[in-house]
Description:
376 residues; alpha+beta; Neuraminidase; 4-stranded antiparallel β-sheet; 6 helices; globular; disordered N terminus
Amino acid sequence: MAAVAKTRRSGAMLLRCALLGSLAAAPVCGAAAEASTNASTNASTNAAAPGTPRVLREPALQSPKALAAATLAVARAGSRLVAVGERGTVLLSDDAGEHWRQAQTVPVQVTLTAVRFINERTGWAVGHLGVILRSDDAGQTWALQLDGQRAAAAVAIAARDLNDERAQRNAQRFAEEGPDKPFFDLDFADAQHGLAVGAYNLAFATADGGKTWQPALQRLPNPKSLHLYGVRYVGGKVYVVGEQGLLLKSDDGGASFNALASPYKGSFFGLLAARSGALIAYGLRGSAVRSTDQGEHWEALATGLPMSISAGADLGPAGLALLSQTGDLMVSHDDGASFQKIAPSGGPLPAAGLALADDHHLVYASLRGMRRQALP
Length: 376
């Protein structure tokens, strides 16, 4: 039974990878494959530790092909757009998505799955092999703050300090499995406090802008180590969503979490917060639920979508938007109480990320690169 459960959970993670766009390069969808495929016996490059995977030691390649690479997420840094994706690809646009160029320096070649900016210059990206990157120049250059090897070591130290045998066993397994676990999302409350979440209950927090990242696994009531797919700071609270309908909430800035009653047993892939404070959790098979009381109660939304929802965005005065994995856009003008489906211009698109480009346009991150679309 344990083997079956693990297989199902691994399948869920692979599905999430597919929704994020990694199908363009199937081997990198499993972070373990990314590690083993790129491992090298030469540990001298970048003074890396012995056994460090090559993709953690070498910077992303500069190539014209990057402009057509699979992208998994996109965010705004002031007026600039920053998109991330496979093999350490980071793309920048300063004209609302009409033209894109590659970032100057990205220190790793791992698949990047999420990106957030807290202002026009400072932001973070996360990805496979436990990678967390920071930029202080609107995405032009990036520095590595955490990787899976350092993450495993930190988990082991934290487990010893807890004097908890079960935690120590989990930490030992975490270390033995290597730096293979991907982060799927991150968010920041301010310039100092942030949380990154990922596969098998992977969670790290920072209180100093990422200078140090501390294991947060033990803070989460997640005994099955379910995958964590989304995190958002909203109105002084922190919310985390994951597989099997997992909904978690923190009332103390992420120091501790409580499980919320969930109306859905399938996976939630992300969270969208309206400016009113209303929350929308979205995920598998077009499922979306909404709460107007800080997650205490949820109501199902009628999306009419048979396929999964991969992203959401606040459109400002234009409302809220959800994006399906085939590129269908769902727009709400009533604080997320209802959504209207809009077919993608240019035909179906294997979409993974969504952002407001300017007052008149959206941009999609997808398996086929970036797409710009007029606001409906």
